[in-house]
Amino acid sequence: MPAFFVAGTYDVPAGARDMASAAARMKEATYVELRATHFAQMEQPDVVHQLLLEFVEHVG
Question: Is residue 52 over pLDDT 90?
């Protein structure tokens, strides 16, 4: 099952290191780290939106 992880470098509740580790253990995972906090989607909405569109296009 494809999975997509977007992590913020400065995210404390869901740390980038943990997210990268989870993605690395999945066969079909994509991992992207942004210079952001836990609220990457609010800090970089255009980037997150584009990444999600690309992911949906890839798996659709």
Answer: yes
Percentage of the chain exceeding pLDDT 90: 97
**Coil, helix or strand for 37?**
coil
Cβ pair 11, 38 in contact under 8 A = yes
pLDDT digits (tens, 9 = 90+) for 19-41: 999 999 999 999 999 999 999 99
Please name the amino acid found at residue 39. Answer: F
Residue whose tokens read 């079909």: 28
Q: State how many domains the chain has.
A: 1
- Which SS3 state, helix, strand or coil, does residue 51 take? helix
Domain containing 10 equals 3-59
